[in-house]
Amino acid sequence: MRTETSLQPRHRPLSTAGRARSLISLTPLIDVVFILVIFFMLASSFVDWRSIEVASRAGAEGGAAGAGALLVEVRAGGVRLSGEPMSLEALSARLADVPERRVLVRPERGVAVQDLVAVLDRISAAGVSDVSLAGSPSSGRAR
Description:
Layout: H1 3-7, H2 16-22, H3 26-43, E1 55-56, H4 62-65, E2 70-75, E3 78-81, E4 84-86, H5 88-97, E5 103-107, H6 113-125, E6 131-133
Parallel strand pairs: 1-6, 2-5, 5-6
Antiparallel strand pairs: 2-3, 3-4
């Protein structure tokens, strides 16, 4: 009885045919990945679900449009409601009390668009539905 040899692992010689079968071709894998990318691109929707509707005031109604409206000025240093500086939270609270009033938003020159969008988002969250963008007083002058 040969118990010594039975404990030793048996090694099979590696052949080139065995190696060729164990290689995985990357071409079908890349094809599948591209098909998945195309599928997800076609299946996804690129519509912005959180859009803010803003009416632009016409030049003909300029003076009459702002008669009873609240003016929100977006500046680099913060936000002002009718000339009074306040935080975004205070602005939301004040506008929530009067959601039926018209709000004119006037961004200062050089204000980041993200800051303007943040203010518009707060105004919309306060329940105000009549929001218009107003140009800065110096925007009509020639440079």
